[in-house]
């Protein structure tokens, strides 16, 4: 059985290593395949352009895990909408019908919920171009496989943190972090748990739902997270003030559907996850 990773950056590579550890052949499409570890068969591919490489005939699952080159609507559309369309065109061209196509999306498709809870049944209401474009890509993929034997599923991830993704840690360390004056909920997932969720959904025996929320168990208030990081690093508590607009909207995402599949988090909350990140960066706890 072959797993095709259409987009094989940091998250895709981590997922690929986990697929390989389970005994799967893993093929990774990316512009610079030489950067991939030996466990992943790297193939040079620009998903933003048509005419992608041949799809292995025995491909059982495709994971579309792309990333935009820049934070602009045009870049997002080129990566997520055009990139996904080109992958689907390649499957059709080569007559390959995988059992599953998993699209890595974002909780940005929900917009702001005023601090309320959202889940897979909550109507989408993106407020920015990122959520709108991702939602368009989700629909594109779903429409292409409607009425076929292929299951199309979107995994809507919260903010990914982990090795190399230390934005909040860096803000606290530099003294630029600001605790919002209001309660501002955030939703996140450690990179390793995000990769594990991709592998779990792509390989589990049971049937898949159209959508899953990929967030940890604790949609914590941003101020709580910042104060925790300061304490862990032995630094002063960040000041309260104007923290600017909320990234991704103020909402609390439920992961109940993902957990109902038997998925278990290595880092069920930001506390376990950030402690592991801090240990990896060599930061000494007081």
From TrEMBL:
CDD domains in UniProt: SDR_a4
Location of the NAD-dependent epimerase/dehydratase domain: 12-204
SUPFAM superfamilies linked: NAD(P)-binding Rossmann-fold domains
MF-aspect GO terms: aldehyde dehydrogenase (NAD+) activity
Residue stretches spanning the membrane: none
One Pfam family this sequence matches: Epimerase
One GO term describing the cellular component: cytoplasm
Protein name (record): Nucleoside-diphosphate-sugar epimerase
Upper taxonomic lineage: Bacteria, Bacillati, Actinomycetota, Actinomycetes, Micrococcales
């Amino acid at each position: 059985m072959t797993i095709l990773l259409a987009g094989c950056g940091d998250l895709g590579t981590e997922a690929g290593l986990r697929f390989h550890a389970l005994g799967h052949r893993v093929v990774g499409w990316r512009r610079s395949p030489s950067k991939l570890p030996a466990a992943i068969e790297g193939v040079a591919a620009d998903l933003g352009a048509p005419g992608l490489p041949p799809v292995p005939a025995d491909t059982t699952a495709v994971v579309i895990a792309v990333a935009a080159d820049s934070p602009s609507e045009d870049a997002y559309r080129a990566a997520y909408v055009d990139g996904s369309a080109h992958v689907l065109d390649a499957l059709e061209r080569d007559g390959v019908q995988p059992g599953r196509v998993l699209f890595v999306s974002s909780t940005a498709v929900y917009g702001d919920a005023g601090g309320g809870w959202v889940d897979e049944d909550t109507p989408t209401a993106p407020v920015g171009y990122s959520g709108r474009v991702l939602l368009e890509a989700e629909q594109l993929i779903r429409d292409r496989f409607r009425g076929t034997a292929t299951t199309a599923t979107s995994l809507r991830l919260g903010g990914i943190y982990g090795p190399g993704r230390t934005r909040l840690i860096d803000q606290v360390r530099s003294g630029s972090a600001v605790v919002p004056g209001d309660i501002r909920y955030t939703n996140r997932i450690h990179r390793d748990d995000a990769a594990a969720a991709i592998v779990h959904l792509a390989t589990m025996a049971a049937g898949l739902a159209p959508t899953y929320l990929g967030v940890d168990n604790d949609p914590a208030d941003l101020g709580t997270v910042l104060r925790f990081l300061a304490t862990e690093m032995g630094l002063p508590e960040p000041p309260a003030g104007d923290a600017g607009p909320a990234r991704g909207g103020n909402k609390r995402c439920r992961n109940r559907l993902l957990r109902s599949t038997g998925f278990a988090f290595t880092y069920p909350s930001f506390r376990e996850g950030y402690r592991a990140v801090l240990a990896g960066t060599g930061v000494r706890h007081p």
